[in-house]
Amino acid sequence: MAGTGVFAEILDGEVYKYYSDGEWKKSSSGKTVAIINPTTRKTQYKVQACTQEEVNKVMESAKMAQKSWAKTPLWKRAELLHKAAAILKEHKAPIAECLVKEIAKPAKDAITEVVRSGDLVSYTAEEGVRILGEGKFLVSDSFPGNERTKYCLTSKIPLGVVLAIPPFNYPVNLAVSKIAPALIAGNSLVLKPPTQGAVSALHMVHCFHLAGFPKGLISCITGKGSEIGDFLTLHPGVNCISFTGGDTGIAISKKAGMIPLQMELGGKDACIVLEDADLDLVAANIIKGGFSYSGQRCTAVKVVLVMESVADELVEKVKAKVAKLTVGPPEIDCDITPVVSESSANFIEGLVMDAREKGATFCQEYKREGNLIWPLLLDNVRPDMRIAWEEPFGPVLPVIRINSIEEGIHHCNASNFGLQGCVFTKDINKAVLISDAMETGTVQINSAPARGPDHFPFQGLKDSGIGSQGITNSINMMTKIKTTVINLPTPSYTMG
Ligand code: NAP
Hints:
It is built from 14 helices and 26 strands. It has helices at about 50-70, 75-90, 90-105, 105-130, 175-185, 200-210, 225-235, 250-255, 280-290, 310-325, 340-355, 405-415, 430-435, 470-475, and strands at about 10, 15, 20, 25, 30-35, 45-50, 135-140, 150-160, 160-165, 190, 220, 240-245, 260-265, 270-275, 300-305, 360, 370, 370-375, 375-380, 395-400, 415-420, 420-425, 440-445, 460, 465, 480-485. Strands 16-19-20-15-14-22-23 form a 7-stranded mixed sheet, with helices on both faces. A 6-stranded mixed sheet has the order 11-10-9-12-13-25, sandwiched between helices. The protein has a 4-stranded mixed sheet with strand order 1-2-6-5. It is globular. The protein binds NADP nicotinamide-adenine-dinucleotide phosphate. Its EC number is 1.2.1.9.
């Protein structure tokens, strides 16, 4: 159970502690932040509202810890990460329980998130040992005008202190996808978890504590992003920010100083369906892509662009599958569970009402109870409706009927987002041409968009992000290249 057994020390009465300098602590603010259970809409947990002083202290110890961590052998760093991964998986049940209560993630998916996170940490440790164990050796005579008098040795060095800010929808997985690459590369890490998801993240951090990482190397500051966020992101002690979330990321990137940024932001992933597509496959992927975790995924299918000639048939197939989705609490693994907050539900409802006023066809009756919104397919959506462009982050999916492939590509590219997209056709040549024309970081051919497997590169274009994630890319992003040049008095050519 959450907050008991090995996790008892992270709880003080009914308030979870924050993690600083290798210890679980109460904030001197005396203030707490309530975490509302999206299903019951009552306070489920409380976390500390950390102060600026506490952030300063965390940054100080992170800086000190990093200096000796950078001198810790790579195999030892990997060994500790493997240990943390095993502990995380061993304690998947209490962590998954928090995910169910804090973010209404269906119970089975919550377990999957924790197990996947353990696997990600282990894979990162292995990948780090390989790619950080290699550098480059360059010789000067390949550039015109030079003799072979200079040997250049390059290696990857850590950046320093990495600030990690994940979003509510994968508070464990999207935290470890930043923690593990940062640590294997020799950085220290400060985590600011999302408020909804903070307690799951604190349990996860405790697994790193139990693994025995040095004091100060990992810390976890809790508090509302709107209150503590700017102080963290503008802190002079931060050498890199890895952020996943919504438009907040755009504001952070505009304010951040001369530090590397990894930004994974929103998406409006388009699903382009051609006349020759296997419509059963498309319908299954629209259901999985559009409605799993109630549409609260960055890579959810967020607009279907289907050729008019097959639109009726596709809509009927999707409607039949929507009718089979179970709706209710996450504890019993319903397909559709309450969205994360009341404000989120209100936002989704606003998009639905706008579509109604402007004449979209409702394939189901719109129904909402508290934060629970029943799955809804909106047909005949037109570009003047907000839902054609905005990210609902809920179980509501618009269908736009198109008369040409160009029209579909145009709609996809007119979006300010460019995360992923997908195309369904049996003609691989057409699929490749469409994939090349879509201005998104990834295009899936004949499958719904997806972030995993976690070692694949993952990136958004335009307002969807800066840089690229995926295990290898994240390790590289959290390092810099350093070179040492050996200058010889006379040219020297290595002989066989
Ligand atoms: P969000 O509101 O942007 O919050 C993300 C994180 O930022 C949270 O930890 C939040 O903390 C924190 N935060 C809020 N204000 C801040 C500030 N001023 N400075 C620093 N941090 C601040 O996003 P969300 O609602 O959690 O997640 C949904 C969004 O994430 C969607 O747009 C989705 O598409 C996107 N997303 C993208 C990806 C991707 O990889 N591209 C993956 C998943 C989700 P609090 O919770 O305390 O406010």
